[in-house]
Design a protein that fits this description.
The protein is mainly beta and 77 residues long. It contains one helix and five strands, in the order E-E-H-E-E-E. Strands 2-1-5-3-4 form a five-stranded mixed beta sheet, with no helix packed on it.
């Protein structure tokens, strides 16, 4: 199944462009996808995962046509 992955902000990307269309197996979670792209599980604590406009947990399963946005969380106060 095909999904769109976009990295927003000053975040390490697995490729030069900010967005790419990928094919993934049914049942793939956002976490498994990102770990497969070289992220460590603890890296996921520093990003927000937004799928089709809604913030989701890393364990959510991706579906055909999903748009996954990976956003670096900002700190401060």
């Amino acid at each position: 199944m095909d999904i769109q992955v976009t990295f927003l902000g000053p975040i390490r990307r697995p490729w030069p462009e900010t967005s790419r269309r990928l094919s993934v197996e049914p049942g793939t979670t956002a976490e498994a996808l990102l770990v497969g792209l070289g992220y460590e599980p603890q890296d996921l604590q520093r990003v927000a995962l937004v799928i089709n406009g809604k913030r989701q947990k890393p364990q959510v399963e991706l579906a055909e046509g999903d748009q996954l946005r990976v956003v670096l969380l900002a700190g401060g106060g």
